[in-house]
Amino acid sequence: MKSHRLDAAAxxxxxxxxxxxxxxxxxxxxxxxxxxxxxxxxxxxxxxxTGSLRYAIxxxxxxxxxxxxxxxxxxxxxxxxxxLIEIIRLLHQASDIPVHLD
Length: 102
What we know:
Layout: E1 3-6, H1 8-24, H2 27-46, E2 64-68, E3 74-80, E4 84-92, H3 97-101
Parallel strand pairs: 1-4
Antiparallel strand pairs: 2-3, 3-4
Helix pairs in contact: 1-2
């Protein structure tokens, strides 16, 4: 299993999403969000090639992949590096995703 690292933008995305659930739902929902995120990251680290290539740049040496969280409308965007998984964003599935990936 590879290790992972969250880029600064991904860290901010996680905090913003967690804060949203704290403000608009409750602590149990916010904790459930973090558990779902942890499950997704564990899956990605064990099976990095299973993420979708929908937003990958053609012929990129290290393609961008994403994996959707189970019960929350977010996706983890990541690049598989030689020694780790670099998580670059956590984006809401209804957002204009390509704009956030530039």
